[in-house]
Amino acid sequence: MVKKKFSTKVIHSGHGSDKETGAVMPPIHLSSTFKQNKPGDFQYEYARTKNPSRDILEKLLASIESGKQAFAFSSGMAAINTVCDLFGENYHVICSDDVYGGTRRLFDKVKTNIDVTYVDFDTNVNWDDIVNDRTKFVWAETPSNPLMKIIDIKNTVEIAHGFKLPVICDNTFASPYNQRPLELGADLVVSSSTKYLGGHSDIVGGSIVIKDQDLYGEKIAYLQNAVGAIPSPFDCYLLTRSIKTLSVRMQKHNENGEKVASFLESHPKITKIHYPGTDQKYKSIASKQMSGFGGMMSVVLDTNLEGVNTFLSNLKIFTLAESLGGVESLIEHPAIMTHASIDKKIRDSLGISDSLLRLSVGIEDVEDIIEDLKQALETI
After folding, report:
1. Does residue 347 have an active-site annotation?
2. For the chain, is the Cβ count within 10 Å smaller at the N or the C terminus?
């Protein structure tokens, strides 16, 4: 059988026409419980454990991430929490230094029995100094939130596997359209499906995709059922539907992102732009492991917080809001919004300043997007 291309997978993986009715789109299975033939003899038992709508979504997610098995959750943080629980307690993690604020909050303030070493993978890391007998995995968020750092996945996997450590990649900012970490050697991939996978700012969800069912499948399924942080059947349906347009949406996000980044890079009121397609430090690695640079970027404005607020208040197309990856353009202030839970000293050391803004470039007409940024920049 000919291997399907990505744009075909997003449309056809996970289901065919409904066997009972011939419906092209699968029905939403809202039932919370299911009839058993006799005690213990069933296909579905209870919707927290397994549901036909979630089965379809999980098969689709596994296919587009090039994995063997996928697990859907009620949020990206629920997926990350499950990964933490997968490895037990009282252990050590090596984590990239620039990560989503919610991830760092979970690691530092909720999972207090886990020790985390934050590493700048841009530097020459001495792995012998940071790996110990309690280290259980390496967490790599690439591109990172909000500074758009790029981690060389293949290189990191090669080193980590040398220490017999699995590598877990957060693929939220790239989406599987632009990057598939499992194909690059990673062991698990985690995503907030709220973002590019959902793509319409109307779903909250998360996922874990694995390539070794024997090693992780049974335990993740156990935690998914036991903890119960699952998406509703309707959310599963919405996400399945949304993923069908992932390819066409990401093509436009990539195209618009590059044009917006080019405009901002040359603007006198932008002192720095973080974007894989313009950052010479990361562009070669990004080009090697990504098929596109995406629509995410961060910029440093040549002004103070008051000037930043003036700029934000004058935007007409961009909406000041958390989250990202929707069809509409969004902008946010990491230090006050998504990364406010991180200690200010840490934010300052990373470069998450009051002048930093994160943009999620949507799929509107790019000339309108650029004009909106241009007129707002003229007010500061």
Report:
1. no
2. N
Q: Could you confirm whether 358 is annotated as catalytic?
A: no
Contact criterion met (CB below 8 Å) for 33 and 46: yes
pLDDT tens readout for residues 151-194: 999 999 999 999 999 999 999 999 999 999 999 999 999 999 99
Query: According to CATH, what is the number of the domain 246-377?
Result: 3.90.1150.10
Which whole number is the average pLDDT over 276-280? 95
User: Has 100 been annotated as catalytic?
Assistant: yes
Contact between 343 and 230 under an 8 Å Cβ cutoff? The reply is no
Given a contact cutoff of 8 angstroms between Cβ atoms, the answer to whether 290 and 179 are in contact is yes
Choice among 100, 177, 237, 282 that is catalytic: 100
The domain limits of the chain are: 6-243, 246-377
Domain made up of 6-243: CATH architecture: 3-Layer(aba) Sandwich (3.40)
Q: Is pTM, for the whole model, over 0.90?
A: yes
Kindly name the residue from 55, 170, 354, 372 that is annotated as catalytic. Answer: 170
Q: Is 152 a catalytic residue?
A: no
Q: Which two tokens stand for residue 326?
A: 């929707």
- How far is 67 from 320, CA to CA, in rounded Å? 35
